[in-house]
Design a protein that fits this description.
- This protein has 291 residues and is α/β, with parallel strands linked by helices.
- The protein is 40% helix and 23% strand.
- It has eleven helices and eight strands.
- Strands 1, 2, 3, 4, 5, 6, 7 and 8 form an eight-stranded mixed β-sheet that branches.
- Helix 4 links the parallel strand 1 (52-56) and strand 2.
- It binds S-adenosylmethionine (SAM).
- The site of S-adenosylmethionine has 23 residues, from helix 3, helix 4 and strand 2.
- S-adenosylmethionine is lined by residues 11, 15, 30, 34, 57-60, 62-63, 80-83, 86, 107-109, 124-126, 129-130.
Length: 291
């Protein structure tokens, strides 16, 4: 099997397996945590407009639903995600709140989106998982109208986001098989290098590219911390496979490593991200990345 296909299959399996179940189960907590990022994306959505907006890697749908609320009855808000369980929850939420938002379960890298149909394409940390980001962003470019905007938030480096990697660092001596992060492959920190992000967008025919650092203060209740750090990230993928005694020992060790983030009944940390803006120039429509 070629490497790209293997990576693509791995990502699909990840987002339809344990990672997806953890995101579905922790939906309330994650939406609370990531709300400041969503608000920054919403600023790009003209309230009450008749525009069409695509939310890439929409997960359980919080941002897609918020966009639909902001657009009102004239606009169109569509989320696309590779994860069946997460899209399933997004659809249930839309139904529950009577939202006109719709969802596509597909790989945004190669799904045949309607050409020149979106005025705005956004993503809340959902675009770092493509096996070929240039092909993916070229696909999104073709779905964008001329002068459409692209706005997404992606993580900066693991070193700038120590909260996100504390669990795996604390657990590593106890779990030699913990999967290592691949800095050059798809994953949470694959957009850490802003020059790489710039090149990806240029090569996929986006223009007016602006990438700026964004440090967002974030909180969660202390009562949620243990569940968060044992379910999400690389640790959450392997902990279910160890015996109860080992799991309890690892959980206690890892929880202690988070003490510096705990202030009474609140956990406080900073999310170090890039806010990326770009435009679809008319010249770039027909071209588009490697294929
Ligand atoms: C970190 S989660 C973010 C989810 C959502 N944007 C949020 O903020 O709650 C990343 C999302 O990207 C999705 N994803 C990963 N690879 C994808 C692909 N190739 N096409 C579409 N979605 C993808 C995952 O299924 C997951 O829902």
């Amino acid at each position: 099997m070629d490497v790209a296909r293997q990576i693509s299959d791995e990502q699909k399996a990840l987002w339809n397996g344990r990672a997806a179940r953890a995101w579905v189960d922790a939906q309330d907590l994650l939406d609370h945590m990531l709300k400041p990022l969503e608000d920054l994306l919403l600023d790009a959505v003209p309230a009450g407009s008749a525009g069409s907006v695509l939310d890439v890697g929409c997960g359980t749908g919080s941002t897609t639903l918020a966009i639909a609320r902001r657009l009102g009855t004239k606009g169109r808000s569509i989320g696309i995600d590779i994860s069946e369980p997460m899209i399933g929850l997004a659809r249930t939420r839309a139904e529950r709140e009577g939202s006109p938002a719709t969802f596509i379960r597909a790989n945004a890298q190669d799904h045949a989106l309607e050409p020149a149909s979106f005025d705005l394409i956004v993503s809340r940390i959902g675009v770092m998982f493509f096996d070929d980001p240039v092909v993916a962003f070229a696909n999104l470019r073709r779905a964008a109208r001329d002068r459409a905007e692209l706005r997404f938030v992606a993580w900066r480096s693991a070193a700038e986001n120590p909260f996100m990697t504390t669990a795996e660092r604390a657990a590593a001596p106890l779990l030699p098989n913990l999967p290592a992060r691949r800095p050059d492959g798809p994953g949470q920190f694959s957009f850490a290098d802003e020059h790489r992000v710039q090149r990806i967008l240029q090569d996929s025919n986006w223009s007016d590219i602006h990438i700026r650092p964004l440090d967002v203060a974030c909180t969660m209740p202390e009562s949620e911390l243990l569940g968060y750090l044992t379910r999400l990230g690389p640790l959450g993928l392997v902990l279910p496979d160890v015996d109860d005694q080992t799991r309890a020992h690892i959980a206690a060790t890892v929880r202690a490593a988070f003490d510096r983030y705990v202030h009474g009944d609140e956990v406080r940390f900073t999310m170090a991200c890039w806010m990326v803006d770009a435009k679809a120039s008319a010249a770039g429509r027909a071209e588009g990345g490697r294929e």
